[in-house]
User: Fold these one by one.
Assistant:
Number 1:
Amino acid sequence: MRKEFLMGNEAIAMGALAAGVNLVAGYPGTPSSEVLETIAKRRSAQVYVEWSVNEKAALELAAGAAYTGARTLVTMKQVGLNVASDPLMCLEYIGVKGGMVVLVADDPGPISSQTEQDTRQFAVYSKLPCFDPASAQEAYEMIQEAFAYSEKYGTPVFFRPTTRVCHGYASVELKDEEQYHVNQPEGFVKDTSKWVIFPRVAFQNHMKIESRNEELSQVFSEYSRNAILPEDAQHQQCRKGIVASGISYTYACEAMEQLGHIRLLKVATPHPFPEQLALQFMEGLDEVLCIEELDPVLEKALLQICGKHHCTVKVLGKLTHHVKNAGENTRDSVKKNIADFMEISMNEVQEREVPPALPVRPPVLCAGCPHRASFYAVKQAMKGKKTIFCGDIGCYTLGNAMPLDMVDTCLCMGAGVNIAQGVGKIEPDTTCFAFVGDSTFFASAITGVVNAVYNQANMTLVVLDNSTTAMTDHQPHPGTGRTMMGEIVSKISIEAVLHGVGVERVETVNPLNLQQAVECVREVAAQPGVKAIIFKSPCIAVTKPQGCMHIDSEKCINCKKCIREIGCPALFVKDGKVTIDKSLCTGCGLCSQLCPVEAITGGEAHA
Amino acid sequence: MHKNIVLCGVGGQGTVLASKLIAAAAMSRDIPVMSAETIGMAQRGGSVFSHLRMGEGVYTPMIGEGEADLILGFEPGETVRMLPYLKKDGYVVVSNRPVMPVTASVSGSNYSGQEMLDYLERNVKHLMVVDTDKACEELGSAKVLNVLMLGAALKTDALGLSKEAVEQVMLERLPEKFHELNRKALKFFST
């Protein structure tokens, strides 16, 4: 045993390695990405790891490997599960031979996501067992158990941490490598009655799944991570209890350290719900408060149990508005929920003045980000025209902020390409643009382009190719020519893909050359049909800065056009003068190309 | 020992690294640590924070309001934002250098950070304002803000860690050519 200071996601990865995982695949997405990255860094040579092109591909790959008896892990964020849901829903009816853990990181808040969907709810829907860790240490141990359950019951299982567990750090106690489980895959054994899904097979397996889940509810009532924590001596007569899971369980423990301990049920397997344990917990209680994030999954499970067993216990939580029904829980919100429930008044008001208005800091494109130049070029070229700019998921969603204001829609990965077509079909006089990043292009925009070409759309596809997956910390993708196994492979050319699916006009331009970029957009946008512009310039985080721009204060007329037009964080006003923050400026030179008096020089010479 | 520390600033200022160094220093002295940071979209120039908790009997990395022994503020406005977390008698160490939000630059509104520092002066008993711009200039590097702030935190004793412990883990993590600069930066406000 040894200790390491690990992020929750790193602990999960180390746990998977300790469980003898043979293959790991995933698609990046906050807060899940570090799991796969850690596997790649810490794996032995026998472990295969890849960033797949999207979550569906990752899940299918892992299923194939699990058919051979390999232990497999798939990683994604919650919205990635929507992409992977088609194979997953079916896979549950087929089952697996090797242990298969589907790690889906949920994001209460949401902090970096489009939805507050709850994977525990998806577990109920898809009938998969689900494990919900509360801390880095628990996650490390629990994922090893998840592999064992998966293998024993022949089903993929969900492992569902949330952002605060994924990104929380702790000193985690780890196994030594000699203690790792070793899994030797037996190999794929042909059996069409098992591996080929047909209605009859689905019906038979549906029955098996239902009885297995009933059994698992019993088994999980004995599982040590589902537990009743007894009330303290002062609360022996208290007929109230708390039900909690995940990070909210830790918040509840902290709150009760201060407020006193009433009985608590910790739920580590929201599905199948440990029914027997819950009945035992509710014995002698009149009221229980459910503390959880996202959907009222525990609350509904308890209500169902109460209904089934005619318990008169009152179940409180989100459905009764005792706990807020959206956004993440905090230490303080949970403390207040429990204090209210225990009828303890909290009046520790801090005697401080009301603070002055705080600066608002929405996330922005970095100084020197090539996306800023791309958006600005399209904006300049299309000035005064009726347009729609359909955005997508990635750093470039931040192009919506003022002053660029260049993202009119954003829905989900790859959606922009099709939304632009839909708008165009109803409003033929609108010039339709779809912006998509390079990684998103490969993940889910190609089919949209095929659709556009086939169905005779009029639109301009703008691929923002910065040669990386920037938002999630720079993972490689098919266009980068690197794999997670460390191989250098041939890059898949976006241009060639577009030509291949029938896009005849594809222009590749450096967006940092403003004049050339604007001219290119004007020309391409005026042409009918489906055409594409690839703005190619690397992300500032994967390239060396070109130096720094300088403002000649003699020449500068302080018109502030540079600040007003592009909103670069490196440009600001100090003592009434436009100034460049040297620690941020990368010398991209965009500002120098729009300065009316040529007062800004330095950096790259593009103009 | 039991310490709760909030580090806060603007994405890109290096709060995460500072938090990791404190955690490593605590680990090197066998003190259990938990921490939590802002990761993801907010790192692009948004408000960021780290919560850091040292000592036994901690269930969660998150700090509740009124629980922080120390706020290490890399930016005046962000420090005011985190003030509800401060204990009644807690310490605040704050850099006097404001970071202008792009929203303020674009709308032409005024944010100098001075009103934030004034507010802190009036509302925090144990306050240490550090001139990090001046320090960076003297040291000839703009990249040592986090180590400067760590040094200032050591001066208050609110960290509960020795300068030696912090320096040791810092040097272990840096290439040798940066040792001298960072040693000086750590010393700048701590002595």
Note: The first strand of chain A starts at residue 2 and ends at 7.
Number 2:
Amino acid sequence: MFLYKRIKVAAFMFSAAVLASCTAGGDNQGTEYAPNMYHSLPYEPLSQITDESAGLWATSNESGVGEYYNSNPNNPHRMTMREPAPNTVSRNSLGFLPYDKVKGDIAWAEENLKNPLPASEEVISNGKELYDRFCQHCHGASGQGDGAVGKVLKGVPSYSKGRVKEVNEGHIFHVITSGYGRMGAHGSQLSQEERWEIVRYVQTLQNQ
Amino acid sequence: MSLKNSFAGYALALVLTCATLLSAGTTVFAQADQIPTDEQAISNGKALFEDNCTVCHSVHERVVGPALKQVIEENRSLPWIISFVQNSQKVIQSGDKDAVALYNEFNKTEMPSFAFSPEQITSIVAYIKHETENPPVKEVAEVPEGGTGPAVSGGTGVSSEYLTILLVVLLVVLVLILIVLALIVSVLTGYLKKDQQLEEADREIVESKFDLQKLLTNKAFLGFVVFAFTAIVLKTVIDGLFMVGIQQNYQPKQPIAFSHKIHAGQMEIDCNYCHTGVRKSKSANIPSANICMNCHTEIKKDSPEIQKIYAALENDQPIEWVRIHNLPDLAYFNHSQHVKVGEVECQTCHGPIETMDVVYQYADLTMGWCINCHRETELNTEGNDYYTKLVQLHNEHSKEPMKVVDIGGLECAKCHY
């Protein structure tokens, strides 16, 4: 009887210790409740499990791979996210053709590109908001090239002085899209409409 | 004789003075060709340099073009500098050996032509010379080595560290007091034992001994111990059960030691710059390597961690970051809805991300946590006509400001469908 009591106490303590280890921290993800709900069967672009045996114990499908395995073996590096199909083009409601597909260098852009957006207050304030998020850390809050990253990167010009003061909207748009000198291409981060909004705001900084 | 002598002396002096004046004159003319050192020229040159040259040049470091202190160190002639600045291509095409060597050294990067007057260029050179001779004192606050630091334990700030130290100090003080008290007791009992005139009751107390056996068999004491033990174990079990499925403080090691503390904290890069989807889509997006390259084509190129990005780009192989925040499929969450429409700060859910070297899950992401926020958060309906009537109706019935719960923030089907 005494032994039985002891075993009960020991079991109780053991379960307490096991449960305490459920807590996540460091590399330990913690115990998952209903793990099938945390690892989706369909491909998910932001979580990819390449280990075929992952979740084998919980598996419900008959393909022989684990429940959590969700990589596409037909793609390079088993990627689930793919680039758009070749020779296809996305167009938005404004009917912009993707600028990246327009073959042209900076001289061509200076001569031919015109901003489709008006210099209205709304466009400029949208441009400022985008500028503060995407440009400010290099070019500085007032476009003087004195952002925190700009000081490390070096070679960031002031918008309102020298040669850069004179560049036109096509030039600015092309530089945002494809980069120039030490500046990288930002076409993948900003839609064309957003880039044109930034152009409007940068022009106000040129003339400050 | 003496007169004659003195005359000759005067004549000699005159000739010498003339000669000195003449030679002084030629040096003055010669220096006009050279680099001026007056403050006016230097400050003019500084302004011109900062407005036009800093895009590609620095005085002391090689940036896009060469470090311009070379111009002084290699003693280039002013006419050469002037013609190169005015039209570098012309100088290169004329077959000038130095110019061609420079052109090739910098991968045939063309320097744009600048329509400056020779005086302006001379003043720029004056500034460069001044800077070369007076190099700036190196800044102490260098950017620290990126992301190599060990993981910061989740949620422990400075204040809690102080608290721990304080507790330890208190504990030490208490133990010391205990020891002192025990010493006093033993000294006093020793003294009292010698006292012959002690009353019987007092003597009993003085000569009583601590009986462990008695205490262990004391039912009240045992009952208390069992109760305390059960209560502690029960609490641990219940806490453990509540933590199942909660991944708060999960802080996995990532394939690249990327530090949000450096990028979002020190460098003040907006979250949206890399997490491009946060205002546009359901997920905030992990940046692809090309976004890293916007800066790291130039910054910290030799770091082994940055080399990993280069390798990923070369092999066209995505970097496999470890996902930290993961909601079960039964719950729907949309970033743009919260960040763009709801104007929720990233830090509200992700915690002090700009201070994290290694990111950990800050919030517990439980349903109770979601619901709580939906109950407490007031709506900003300013400038949104869609809500005008709803706000009016709401204000007729309630004195509280309109909150997320009032527009269906607790409806099951908002998140579960």
Note: The two ends of chain A are 90 Å apart (CA to CA).
Number 3:
Amino acid sequence: MVHDTIAAISTAVGEGGIAIIRISGPDAIEGIAQIFRSKISLKDADTHTLHYGHIVDPKTGDDVEEVLVTLMRGPRSFTAEDVVEINAHGGVIAVKKVLDVVLQQDGFRTAEPGEFTKRAFLNGRIDLMQAEAVIDLIRSKSDRAFSVARKQSEGVLSKRIKALRQTVIELLAHIEVNIDYPEHDVEEMTNLFIRDQCDSAIDEIDRLLKTANEGKILREGIVTAIVGRPNVGKSSLMNVLTQENKAIVTDIPGTTRDVIEQFVALNGIPLRLLDTAGIRETSDVVERIGVERSRNALEEADLILFVLNYNEPLQDDDIELLKQLKDRPVIAIVNKTDLPRQLEIEVVEEAIPADSIVRMSVLEEDGLDRLERTISEMFFEGQLESNDLTYVSNVRHISLLKRARQSLVDAIEASDAGIPIDLIQIDARSAWESLGEILGDEAGDSLIDQIFSQFCLGK
Amino acid sequence: MGYLAGQYDVIVIGAGHAGCESALAAARMGCETLLLTINLDMVAFMPCNPSIGGPAKGHVVREIDALGGEMGRNIDKTFIQMRMLNTGKGPAVHALRAQADKVDYQYEMKKTIEETPRLTLRQGMAEELIVEDGKCVGIITKTGAEYRSRTVVVTTGTYLRGKIIMGELMYESGPNNQQPSVKLAASLKEHGLELVRFKTGTPPRVHKDTIDFSKTEIQPGDEKPKFFSHETESSNNEQLPCWLTYTSEDTHKIINSNLHRAPMFSGAIEGTGPRYCPSIEDKIVRFADKPKHQIFLEPEGKNTSEYYVQGLSTSMPEDVQLGIVRSVPGLEKAEIMRNGYAIEYDAVVPTQLWPSLETKVIDGLFTAGQINGTSGYEEAAGQGVIAGINAARKVQGKEPIIIGRAEGYIGVMIDDLVTKGTNDPYRLLTSRAEYRLLLRHDNADMRLTPTGYEIGLISEERYNKFLRKKELVELDIERLRGIKVKPDEVNEMLTAAGTAAMTNGTDALSLLRRPEVTYAMLETVVPSVPEMTEEMKEQVEIQIKYEGYIEKQLVQVARLNKMEKKRIPDDIDYSDVHSLASEAKQKLALIRPLSIGQASRIAGVTPADISILLVYLEHYNRVTAARGS
């Protein structure tokens, strides 16, 4: 227990503020060094130092977030263990993303309620007088966590996790019965059977993880950047969407100089709109800052609305943008369809799939419904029923689901490699346990119960 | 009418599989020991199936042997068939199973007991415990003999208030129509032990000459039998086959039309039966969709015509039993020699025990075997050896021996029983072990011989042999790590084995990691030293091949051990632990776990409770330390 490394967001999570992710335990420095890119490796850094750098997703190699990292080597830390604190800015999404990457490290798990304080106490950092306070803290935090968990366990999510667990436990029971009753006339365990069961469980986990994204989107909005050359109608589009004149709209190119955020609901789909300065090489200093920010916004966006003018031939800037936006979640909005066509639409169609090109006349508010449909298709496969979705929202749940998924993948790989079933069982069992942790169930006797209810055994 | 009949260190009540191991262990450890049995002809009797071993159970027999117990040696002397099961699966679940000659088994065990110094075998029925100042100091028999002792081990099996049930017929009896032990139950209760009612059953036996074997499939033993005991090197025992057949549609019809006469369903049986060995009527009702069930015909010995009909355990009335038996292909003309029956008996709620198997309420009183709510000869013997060891150690003023969950199935079983209790007769399954890969059949000696030696049940000679084996295995692994093999030396062999050829050289150890490559194959290229036995080679192969998985489990075990090492003082008052949930307070006060590890396995004790307990203990220890200085 004390050997694990624990992590948790240790500040109240709020939009836009700075959040701290605290990590404590023997692998804290080693683990974070793996995902933190900075001038000097954390492993070599002195204690009580602050480092600037980026959290990197080790799987993709992509930057997740720009952060400041504090390093405190034990015993001179709050818990008397090695402690790393990641200071992230940029709100809920970014912080959760960072925590998600942190928890994928070997030997890392989410901290239990009050666990940092508990460790501090057990390691002698907190004096005896405070023992009761520590106990109260653990109790109250656990009770709160428990009441949240209970609420969730009554919900649709828990039903789906339970069903998922059932799939895994049936596989387990089948393996166990093959082992404990080798002469019994039950179906021999085959690679195919293991594969089928694991695959179906993996599919379900993927569906749940996808709802995690959908859930996030519904809560926080699809971060949407509107890009395009100056004066193609970006701000007008935003104004139509928001029905408010937030951005400055003129017909002088380059008048939108800052990124303006705006939440809108487009037929139930929440968009967090980032209006951007027109993307164009420019010599104006003020505007250049705006353009720089736009580029950043583009990187962060879940969705990019690329506005083109139907009434003008493609320009170099358009073509440059088309290139940049390749393989990004982009919808091309061909604006000003009320005017005669001058745009080489074929060129656009080469870069962007036809079903992601929407023709509109923003001025006449024509084509908004098509835009809604296209976004819905893109993010919810057209099946957005906002009250009926099950959401996995909790980072701990997401990390446990991912862990379970990995165990199932391991089980399939082991099975393919001809590893005996009693070893495959180890992977399948850890998948079952990870899922159990989500529900807070006790593993207990239920496997044995399953074996004897699923199979007819006896003397 | 009472009289003082003798003074002993340890008294063992009951000479079944638990009692025999207890008495032998205690006597061999130097204690004057009395072994009492209701009937001297029933020593080490197998009232049910004529077999020993199988997954988990066979592992236990190997562990008993590593601890210096008798069951392994005894079955090696008396088997009439030996089979290694699960050979197509991983090494952890390979399991040896023997068919026993029931009479020989009893005879050999009785002989061993009779020849053991300091061990007195005596016929007599214990009826009363002598308890003075909360300590059990002896027993009184039906004939008024008062035996005094320092510790007592109770292993009553299914004799305690035993009741046989067969259809409408019901009578007080021990197994196989033996006299039941009735008054002892009252004495246990009177001294504060809570008892529950459990049930088990056995199938009919049929005469060999009335079986048509041509309608069944033969199930022979292994050509080269392996043995349970690490001491057995060879055997000349002749092997007999078992036979496989199935229930028919008629079987199911007969049972379904007679359910009203089945005590299982008529309400006559009050005891809880094992899920693991349901009767045939139970199976047919619960799994109505299953068209047929396996029936194994097993010989009960070389010199008898009795065949055990495995799969037909029943408590139906005699006439229905005959119909059921004769509905099975091959048994159409079978003559029943003994009926099947269900038997109810009293058991002790096992959460009343310490992990040493001593009861919490009566100092010096130990219980082992079926009385603790288990089923199976091997489970009984495994507890028996531990109870015997700890009863002797208590006499000698030593700390009890507790086998950890990562050390043996015996440890898993006892921890389950005393920490979680059981709602029906407990059977060991390999799935009950968290660290199955470490608790292998092949390494039982590696795990437990040092303990057996430490407590004085393993001889110096055997221990030295063990140390040499361990050393040779380690040396051989190092040797393989050091040997470089070139592609042209092994590629032919690799291709033949169906694995990829090599382009670069590698060490022999890496080669052995490949699933397709065996130690034997490797030996054709890099021969081992002559002293290496087959057993040692197997160890090397398993340790190398499954290293990755083994390492993973070792990490988990390290974590477990950390928790197990955090001892909870016996005088802790849980009602005093601020903020502990009330359910946790109750459960902890009842079980009185010895360690945080054990506490965390109690149902109803949450991780938050464990955290609170840890903080409380830290507080407690600091205060105690401060007072001390």
Note: Chain A touches chain B through 50 residues (CB under 8 Å).
Number 4:
Amino acid sequence: MRKAALHVAAGVLTLAAAAPALAGENDPLIINGQIEITTRTAAPAHLDGHLSEIRSGWTFRTDETQVMQMDDFDNPAMIYVDAATDAWNTVEGSADKSCASCHEGPESLAGFRATTPKWNAEAGAVWTQEMYVNNCRTERMGAEAWDWNGQDMRNMTALLASVSRGMPVNVAIDGPAAETWEKGREMYYTRFGQLELSCANCHEDNYDNLIRADHLSQGQINAFPAYRLKDTNLVSVHNRFRGCIRDTRAATFAVGSPEFIALELYVASRGNGLSVEGPSVRN
Amino acid sequence: MADNVKPRVRVPKSASAGEVVTIKTLISHAMESGQRKDSSGNVIPRSIINRFTCDFNGQNVIDITLEPAISTNPYFEFEATVPESGEFKFTWYDDDGSVYEDSQAITVG
């Protein structure tokens, strides 16, 4: 027993670990050595030549940020997924139910993230994940609705995304959802704010170019909710939309507004074919 | 005890004698620096993890002092040479006196 042999190697406190495999722009994203993520694929037909290839935001990030997403232990967003798993099993509200009472494990909702926002025939509207979660809480559990952009809701959407990772995004844009989708498309190409920028000006015409010191992505939302290093927390899709529109120096729409629901459906459909990737790590 | 504090560690389950293994640890903690003010202008009191230690079979591997500038959910990754089977014990010390512990066995064969 040579206890002296036990030591801490020199200079080992590493915040950004020297990871063995750095991920290049064209490398595949494989999470935990198991889940294969499609980060580049052919654009869906409805984009009609606007983009030839769609790319996950992951492909635009630096090696260090990319690596953080390749292992759940290194992905800071997984803390929030753990918190949501606890919430999932917590009985709340007048009906004495938890999420688990009806849905069993979160895995039972695998695929849900891939197809939302979607048409809810009963409600006669396009619903996002947040709306389904809150409907469960108020109608089935008798609990209070969560704030759309609150921590609890962002955690839960991260959990819902995590069980769908690797599945292709496939939101329906035809049938009853078509009207909302069309509205979203119009928004996407409408210039907003004093800077007169549409979503397309940056994310379609100029992706991969520098905006200040950062590479513009295609603005795909397959990887949301995203853990943003600058916020050290999860960021919801609508909060990101709000940030973008604010940056055009426009008065923004509210989180959860019909405008953002339409935009979410449209932007999600631009990523049809990419894998669900959230919760992701972004700068 | 601060809210939602949950330690997690990753240690390989087995190693060969004398092998250098990588250990990862993460604890969810707000790490309130004591420098911030709330909406009414009052200073939010400091509440951080101020010390982290790792021991192997009773012998210290690493002993870290944490300061207020360390960000939320502190993550440590370090290496240790494992001479024999045993248990890594991890301890985090909170400003409020709470102590959070976790441990993980490793088999040398």
Note: Chain B has one domain: 6-108.
